[in-house]
């Protein structure tokens, strides 16, 4: 006598691929909701979320840095931290002791003002972007997607994704806003 579990698993194994029975549904999403410049729209939406936005070249990055040291991923481009040797470290022993983190991103979504990290090149490990109190992100023009469907098409959805829409914040039952509870209190974005 077989158990119910074995009977169910046997039926599933013998049924083949159930998804093959269904036709593929076309998903013709509206990608671009605005005719506005994507860079301008991203800057506007980031500011709505209380992020500090710089529309400036990377050479102006040092002027934005507050008290360091700043931790950086080991593969960050050298020009992003030129002249900052005394203020950046690549191997922090205590993430709570650093002033902030400088990273790149995987994609930035103009429509929602959201920055997505997949913890790939220029982004470092996940803890690096969640523990320090100040997160400075450099976004290049080719990383700006119009909308969520376009952004998702650019991402490897099997990687660990972190979606950032402004500084970390939460509210209590009386809607009192508290920032920095489960991530950086300050989000600063350089649109280069």
TrEMBL record:
Domain LUD: 101-192
Residue ranges of coiled coil: none
Pfam families: LUD_dom
InterPro entries: FTHF_cligase-like_sf (IPR024185), LUD_dom (IPR003741), NagB/RpiA_transferase-like (IPR037171)
Record's protein name: Lactate utilization protein C
Phylogenetic placement of the source organism: Bacteria, Bacillati, Actinomycetota, Actinomycetes, Streptosporangiales
